[in-house]
Amino acid sequence: MLNSVLVSAKILILVFFVAFGLFYVSGSNFVPFAPNESLGVLQGSALIFFAYAGFARITILAEEVKDPSRTVPRSILLALGISTAIYLFASFVAVGLIGYVNLSTSDSPLAEAIGVTGNNFAVSLISVGAIMATASVLLTTILGVSRVVFAMARNNDLPKSLCSIHSKFKTPYYAVAVTGSFMILAIIFADLSRLVAVSSFAVLLYYSLANLAAIRLSRRRNHFPIVSSVGLLSCLGLLAFLAVDSWIIGLIGIAFGIFFYQAWRRIRKQ
Question: What is the pTM assigned to this prediction?
Answer without folding.
Answer: 0.77
